[in-house]
């Protein structure tokens, strides 16, 4: 196999992420790329964001539904890094510089204590969680046709692109998060629906799994960080002019306008 230059690959991915230009899969050139090496590439890519004064403000979990894991032939989710520039300040998504964006409804846990270690339990997460936001994540794989292997998608920061949080924060004990029904409408038509339990049977398990995976990489979830736990429904493709209305039953509705 060609010698792996993780720094050069990170620079390349960063270029494609910043400019919204698609690329061929890394594994075409490096078929033996491991998931561990891919996390090194992800870390180096995001280091470049940080050097541009775009700090890491949270984490995201991907491949948290059984269906997505089966389709990728894996039995574990993946994580990615969220930076300040990825957070939309208003519910408007500009797609001019994106490739083939998709939107999925999520929950975001915000922590007030550090979470670390390989033995974290749901009650540790509840004790560390300050609040839960309703959230929409925009994913936009940099790879052609949204097709990739596991190391490819890890290197591409789990397709992270943008996210927006609802304006209300809920107490973690406000409701049974696995029972919340979410329905997504695009341009007035229902396109997806699902329940919170689509996320690893319960969204809290996603934060448990994230802490364990991060522990393997000597990372921790710091106070103040947000965690996007994973898609509650399948992601929906969007284009300029679309309007999304996402109802979280009994909680709130998030809207997202898709502009040029
Ligand atoms: O947030 C996600 O679940 C996406 C993870 C990466 C796989 C994909 O882009 O569909
Ligand atoms: Mg997601």
TrEMBL record:
GO terms for cellular component: cytoplasm. It comes from the Bacteria. Residues 99-255 form the Fumarylacetoacetase-like C-terminal domain. Gene3D superfamilies: Fumarylacetoacetase-like, C-terminal domain. Keywords: Lyase. The keyword Lyase applies. GO terms for molecular function: 2-oxopent-4-enoate hydratase activity. This is 2-oxo-3-hexenedioate decarboxylase.
